[in-house]
Amino acid sequence: MAKIIGEKLSNIPWEDKPKGCNEPVWRYSKNPIIGRHLNFSSNSIFNSAVVPYNGGFAGVFRCDDKAIRMNIFVGFSKNGLDWEISETPIVFEGDPEVTALQYRYDPRVCFIEDRYYITWCNGYHGPTIGIGYTFDFKKFYQLENAFLPYNRNGVLFPKKIGSMYMMLSRPSDTGHTPFGDIFVSSSPDLTFWGRHRHVMSPTPFEESAWQCTKIGAGPVPIETDEGWLLIYHGVITTCNGFVYRMGCALLDTNDPSKVKYRTRYYILGPEAPYEQNGDVPNVTFPCAALADAESGRVALYYGCADTVTSIAFTTVDELVNYTKKYSM
Ligand code: BMA
Is the C-alpha dihedral spanning 118, 126, 182, 165 positive or negative? Predict the structure, then answer.
């Protein structure tokens, strides 16, 4: 049995695998959990991140408003399924050159040492990776942008590796980026980033076509006794545009630029009506995973069709076995 190295989380949202289901990941029966108009001002709420907080859960949500402006909002939940999200966006304290709002989207939240770090795609003369932190989900502080533009999908590791903080990211362009590899960068202080190392590329079409256009890290990697479990998104270009599915990889514990295993088969893709239909059809986009080290249960939060937010379940053992069995 593969094991999670981490905290126990006995109140993790959960539903057993339906009888007859052969898939490694299964959807919550009441998806989507967050509708597009949960907030009065929002057109859509998706690609959002949650963490255990104060006996319940807190999250940072991407809400595009009815002017289709992208910004991030704080939310709270007792059970991880029913959410209340603030009507006003997060306001960061920090250097005004950096905090000046262009747009913010696709947040991830990562607890490291004593606080919750938020990374997101931040508009600063093009998309780059913004980083901020909070202790209480009330006051938020912004640090320097991690990288030069253009970059997206910045995802921190939940602890220092060696003596360094580490972050995955995906250099991109200013548009919808028809390419993209995952890299990992190191920092002694979460301000200055360097030692950039390649992690993995899109695959050749004939090897695994669903991930042949671009890939990007999803939730904060989960530490296991088999390495870092990374759920990522992979994209194919079809005659109807991009299709976003999810895959899984195991990265070396001490050097996460080394990929030990990576799935040829996707683990979840747009098949449910709320994943296939919406403002941007055929997008399943994972941004957060809760994990219970005791039971091995994993609850995966993902945006659906750039419109609503859903949850799916798996276990670390299912994912590790699947990733090894269907590895490239
Ligand atoms: C990406 C990002 C995501 C989005 C996806 C599909 O470039 O903008 O937020 O879910 O495209 O539209």
Answer: negative
Amino acid at 263: T
CATH of domain 32-325: 2.115.10.20
pLDDT confidence bin for 257, thresholds 50/70/90: very high
Q: Count the helix, strand and coil residues of the chain and give each as a percent rounded to the nearest 5.
A: 5, 50, 45
Residue of 173, 280, 284, 302 with the most ligand 1 atoms within 8 Å of its CB, for mutation: 280
The whole-number pLDDT of residue 138 equals: 98
Rounded distance from Cα 293 to ligand 1 centre (Å): 31
- Asked whether the beta carbons of 282 and 275 are under 8 A apart, the reply is yes
What element of type H or E holds 246? strand 241-251
Token pair of 63, please?
């809400």
- DSSP class of residue 17 equals P
Q: What percent of the chain has pLDDT over 90?
A: 100
CA trace torsion 6, 8, 14, 20 (10° rounding): 60
Task: Give the per-residue pLDDT at 323.
Answer: 97
**Mean per-residue pLDDT over the chain, rounded:** 98
Closest-CA residue, ligand 1 atom 3, reads 106
| Ligand 1 atom with least separation from CA of 106 | 9
Task: Retrieve residue 9's tokens.
Answer: 């989380």
The residue ranges of every structural domain in the chain are 32-325
Q: What gap in Å lies between CA 231 and CA 76, rounded to an integer?
A: 24
What is the predicted pLDDT for the residue at 227?
Answer: 98
Residue 32 Cα, ligand 1 centroid: separation in angstroms? 18
Tell me which DSSP letter residue 283 carries: B
Q: Hey, whose CA ends up nearest to atom 4 of ligand 1?
A: 306
Centre of ligand 1 to C-alpha 280, Å, is 8
Closest ligand 1 atom to residue 62 Cα is 9
For the full predicted model, state whether its pTM sits above 0.90.
Answer: yes
Cβ-based neighbour number of residue 241 at 10 Å: 13
